[in-house]
Structures are given as structure tokens and as C-alpha cells.
Request: fold
Amino acid sequence: QVQLVESGGGLVQAGGSLRLSCVASGLVPSSYTKGWFRQAPGKEREFVAGISVSGVIVEYADSVKDRFTITRDNVEHTVSLQMNDLKSEDTAVYYCVAGKRGSTTVKTSMDVGVWGQGTLVTVSS
Reply:
């Protein structure tokens, strides 16, 4: 089983940047597709970004494309989300996720095998 711990959330002004990090531990964490979801107050949890095991294939929600960048380091067992040009609508709890064994994507909750505990990002306008 893989365990995920996020860090890097906080308060930032609109237009600013934040970098979220997630450290994975457990059974061969580098063998899993990784990604980020978020849940804003009163809204359903939604996919933000995903990255393949090799790091070559990345996917983004349309709402964050060209502003957010997902990367992973399979030596350090980390996955990061660089968030630029933040908007008030990016305010949410952000969750690091690992895909189910053999999954090549984490675009839906059904693809997710492990969730982190979440880190809060608040963007003030």
C-alpha cells in the first residue's frame, strides 16, 4: 500500500504562485500513476492534473491548463504541482492521489487507489 503526504498549501493573493509537494512511501511508490484532485467548498471533488509512471504523459483539467504544471521524481518518490497565476476559483483543498495498480490515468475518482489527507490552498482576490 502507498501512503501520501502533501505539503505546501497556504494563503496567496490572486495572480500569485504556490508549489504543492507530495511524498509517497510504501510499496514501490514509483510504480503508480500520480495526480492531484481538489475540492472547493460546497463543490464535488474534481481532477486537476495527472502524470504517468514515467512522467512523460501528463493530463490537466481545462481550468488549470497553461497555469499549473505537474512533475514527479521517482528517486525521491515525490510528485509536485506548480501553480501559477492563481485565481480565487482555485481555492480548495488539494489532494495528492495514486492510481490503482495498473491504472494509466487518474482522471476520475474510480481510477484512484490512494488519497492523501489534503492541503488547503486559499487564493484571496
